[in-house]
Specification:
By secondary structure, the chain is α/β, with parallel strands linked by helices. It is built from twelve helices and 17 strands. It has a seven-stranded parallel beta sheet. Strands 10-11-12-17-14 form a five-stranded antiparallel beta sheet. Helix 4 packs parallel to helix 5. The protein binds alpha-D-glucopyranose. The site of alpha-D-glucopyranose has 8 residues, from loops.
């Protein structure tokens, strides 16, 4: 049975997209986008030499940002493998890197007490038996397309299952398995998309569960999974399927690209990223935030700046994220609520966190909380926030407020916004 408790407690993880696509530095789909044949793409394999690679630095930066787990691309759609797979030569050990890059990475993140996840592409634009289709880089090369008659997807399937077994037996306990992605609904006329039939997803998942019983598996094998993975958008509310709330994790980029993309300037601000984290937790979701290291093996300054900005906020506000989820209360406009989960409330008391996305003048009114709060404070400096419950029958006159709904809690705020990205008020709820 998949272990979800740590996941709904930890809420914030690092996604790492790294591979030979970091050399052209034009998005991880470059082989598809520019329809690059293997022979031409080979130059990136031949020049992959991440001489500044030090995964301990990555792990420390992630930990300082407040991240509790990480998911790394063991193989992406171009088929290049970062570990020393016995089933292929198309791997890091055969490049100038000359070593398995996953082993030291897993060790470094484990040393920081972080949980370990593997992203693994079921798509493979390098494997000779992976039948060409409308997503394949060679999709417009008729001679290449003609070869599809000889290609045997069952051989590719055994390769996929074999490599998954390697990943789940050679690196210790794996907490998340992140497959990517199925597209059997696509049809190009001359070819169809691939999905659970091609991967034999049922058998693959059964093997994953047998090898790593507690592992969380995502929802991209077309047979459900433990985890919904909305990508590059924020869900409008809690995620519910067939009336039942489901576990979810939004995967987000820093600039629209997963792989290192040198000339992409569409970077999100640290402030926006903090709000995305808070917004997700307020809807019972996790954030898996991506970094695409460059081909020297480093996180670039633009990424480090944002991780450190998030880390500065998390250092002060982490407890409004960890062990928290959606609240039973409805927040005022321009705000979000996160509330300690029942498990966390048993440990540290039932706490409600008001995240103010916009700093209002002097007062904020909280519906339905008039008789529910013992004490209130700003979380960044634990300074008291005065509370009052205005008599709903009181009329407004000069400086006297009126017209508030019954059982509304009014908080008195300083005019100056606290010096943090998103100010948070911690409300200690009465039992
Ligand atoms: C999509 C992208 C892929 C990326 C993944 C991460 O599938 O195509 O490149 O790795 O999302 O969520």
């Amino acid at each position: 049975m998949a272990d979800t408790t740590w996941f709904t407690h930890d809420r914030f993880g690092l996604f790492v997209h790294w591979g030979i696509y970091s050399l052209p530095a034009r998005h991880e789909w470059i082989k598809n986008r520019e329809m690059i044949p293997d022979e031409e793409y080979q130059k990136y394999f031949d020049h992959f030499d991440p001489d500044l690679y030090n995964p301990s630095t990555w792990a420390q930066e992630a930990k300082n940002a407040g991240m509790k787990y990480f998911v790394v691309t063991t193989k992406h759609h171009d088929g290049f493998c970062l570990w020393d797979s016995a089933l292929t030569d198309y791997k890091a050990t055969n490049t100038p890197a000359k070593r398995d890059l996953i082993q030291p990475m897993v060790q470094a993140f484990r040393n920081e007490g972080m949980k370990i996840g593997f992203y693994h592409s079921v798509i493979d634009w390098h494997h000779p038996e992976y039948a060409v289709d409308g997503l394949h880089p060679m999709r417009e090369n008729l001679a290449f397309r003609a070869k599809v008659q000889q290609q045997d997807i069952t051989k590719y399937r055994e390769y996929l299952h074999g490599q998954t077994r390697e990943l789940l037996t050679q690196f210790g306990k794996i907490d998340v398995m992140w497959f990517d992605f199925s597209y059997s609904n696509r049809d190009w006329g001359w070819s169809k998309g691939k999905g659970k039939a091609e991967w034999d997803s049922e058998r693959l998942l059964a093997m994953v569960r047998e090898l790593q019983p507690g592992v969380l598996v995502n929802d991209r094998l077309e047979i459900g999974g433990d985890l919904k993975t909305p990508e590059q958008y924020q869900p409008a509310g809690k995620m519910v399927i067939d009336g039942k709330p489901v576990l979810w994790e939004a995967c987000q980029t820093l600039n629209g690209s997963w792989g290192y993309h040198r000339d992409n300037l569409d970077w999100k601000s640290g402030d926006m990223l903090i709000r995305m984290l808070v917004d997700g937790v307020s809807k019972d979701g996790n954030l898996l935030l991506n970094v695409g290291p460059n081909a020297r093996g480093e996180f670039e300054p633009r990424a480090l700046d944002r991780l450190r900005e998030i880390g500065a906020w998390m250092r002060l506000h982490g407890r409004s994220i960890y062990g928290c989820g959606a609240s039973e209360f409805t927040p005022p406009p321009d705000c979000r609520y996160t509330q300690t989960t029942p498990e966390e409330s048993r440990r540290s008391g039932n706490r409600l966190y008001l995240h103010l996305f916009d700093w209002p003048f002097r007062h904020v009114h909280l519906a339905g909380l008039g008789d529910r709060v013992d004490y209130a404070q700003l979380l960044n400096d634990a300074s008291e926030v005065k509370m009052s419950v205005v008599d709903p029958h009181q009329g407004a006159q000069n400086t006297t407020m009126g017209g508030l709904a019954p059982n509304t809690l009014t908080l008195e705020l300083p005019v100056q916004k606290p010096p943090v990205s998103v100010p948070v008020i911690e409300l200690f709820l009465k039992n």
